[in-house]
Design a protein that fits this description.
alpha+beta, 2 domains, 9-stranded mixed beta sheet, binds pyridoxal-5'-phosphate
Length: about 290
């Protein structure tokens, strides 16, 4: 049985009802997070919750729950569904109000939390994925993790139509990020990714990789790079909560690093896996166990 938390109440997912005038439904007026759970333990939960509150703040929305209440909600769901490896999906919309663009003063917001099955990514992580390059048609506040995802949906569709798994986006020839990932290149052992400004989402996995690079003395810079530099890279990889560190072996039909994941990508994959092992499997106090 699948469950959900709707405004703090644990119910069967099929029983969940949301008003048609909820602004999440009407305007995509909400924020969200996707968190990976490994061995019953959410990875980087605190960072995800901080980003949720930060995204809400950026759209003038107040989330009337504490971090502890949200954590408790996740625990309840993990216990109820007895899941150890899955994703937590958490969304807070501005709530129900008679349809009008103006931000309502009275709406109290709608919180939903539920669990999603984890994707099987091991084979992809071994072989790498194909990508396409396409124009970044999204708005200019990509730093906000909002449920208004139509731009991301349309560019992802471009990838799917060309038998690729991800769309790498550019604005005037500068690579920003993927439709649902951050993009990295390696050239002459220097690792680069777009700076965390309003053109990209500052991924939690991105932050983890930056700190791994720093701790392990990889040369790494948050610096813009062009589509030409992308195509001339020795290695490319993308990062996200659900794809972790994913090698890119093809861009627009052109093979990258001989069509195989490169050595630096491999090393970062393994260091990231060690981080998961350390923080989710080796922990003494299990998150979801009372
Ligand atoms: C547009 C975009 N960029 C980057 C990411 C990666 O972020 P994270 O590592 O926090 O999952 C995501 C994740 O959904 C995303 O949607």
């Amino acid at each position: 049985m699948a469950y959900m938390l709707l405004n703090g109440e644990l119910i069967e997912r099929s029983e969940g009802k949301i008003d048609i005038e909820d602004r999440g439904f009407q305007f995509g007026d909400g924020v969200y997070e996707v968190i990976s759970v490994y061995g019953g333990h959410p990875f980087a939960l605190n960072e995800h919750l901080d980003r949720l509150f930060e995204s809400a703040r950026k759209i003038y929305m107040n989330i009337p729950y504490s971090k502890t209440e949200l954590e408790d909600g996740i625990k309840r769901l993990l216990q109820k569904e007895k899941k150890n490896n899955c994703y937590v999906y958490m969304q807070f919309s501005r709530g129900t109000s008679i349809r009008n663009h103006i931000i309502p003063k009275t709406a109290t917001g709608t919180l939903i939390i539920y669990l999603l099955d984890a994707k099987q990514i091991d084979e992809w992580k071994q072989k790498g994925i194909k990508t396409v390059i396409t124009e970044d048609i999204r708005w200019l506040r990509c730093d906000i993790k909002t449920t208004s995802l139509l731009g991301n949906v349309l560019v992802k569709q471009k990838a799917v139509e060309k038998n690729a798994s991800e769309a790498i986006l550019h604005r005037d020839g500068v690579v920003t990020e993927g439709s649902s990932t951050n993009v990295w290149i390696v050239k002459d052992r220097l690792i680069r990714t777009h700076p965390a400004d309003h053109f990209i989402l500052n991924g939690i996995t991105r932050r983890e990789i930056l700190s791994i690079c720093e701790n392990h003395q990889f040369r790494c810079m948050e610096q813009r790079f062009t589509v030409d530099e992308l195509l001339e890279a020795d290695e490319i990889f993308i990062t996200s909560t659900t794809l972790e560190v994913m090698p890119v072996v093809e861009v627009d039909g052109q093979k990258i690093s001989g069509g195989k994941p490169g050595p630096i990508t491999r090393k970062l994959q393994s260091l990231f896996e060690q981080e998961i092992q350390f923080r989710c499997f080796d922990v003494k106090e299990k998150f979801s166990v009372k």
